[in-house]
Amino acid sequence: MENLPNCPKCNSEYTYEDGSLLVCPECSHEWSLESGNEEVNVIKDANGNVLNDGDAVTVIKDLKVKGSSSSIKIGTKVKSIRLVPDAADGHDIECKIDGFGAMKLKSSVVKKA
Ligand SMILES: [Zn+2]
User: Which of 2, 12, 16, 68 shows the greatest Cβ crowding within 10 Å of its Cβ?
Assistant: First the structure.
């Protein structure tokens, strides 16, 4: 099974392919997978604000870190995020966090600072 991206509008996972378009059955949004289509790359924070490369965000819940005894605390500020729109595992933000180094986060656990 091909792994289709979630709907960029409502984040539904029930998207399907219709020719060269992807279709969301939940909000009827149609979009193209072709690169250069800005809408494909829309990633939103927990409040629904659109995130951009270079944005600063705040972590909204404590996050356990694999291989570390400490966790990323709620309220941690993260500068200069990099978006990964096609992240298969849902970790669509790459960033560096003081004390942890390079990390991947889900956009659902941050809000725009
Ligand atoms: Zn949708």
Answer: 12
| 78, β-bridge pairs | 57
Sheet containing 30-32: which strands, arranged edge to edge? 16-18, 21-23, 30-32
Give the largest CA-CA distance in the chain.
48
Ligand 1 mean position, distance from CA 66 (Å): 32
SS3 state of residue 66: coil
31 alpha carbon – ligand 1 mean position (Å):
10
Q: Ligand 1 mean position to 105 CA, how many Å? A: 22
Cross-strand bridge partners of residue 17: 22
Q: How confident is the model at residue 29 (pLDDT cuts 50, 70, 90)?
A: very high
Q: How far is the CA of 12 from the centre of ligand 1 (A)?
A: 5
- Read off the pTM: 0.62
Whole-number Å distance between alpha carbons of 78 and 111: 10
Q: How far is the CA of 30 from the centre of ligand 1 (A)?
A: 8
Amino acid at 24: C
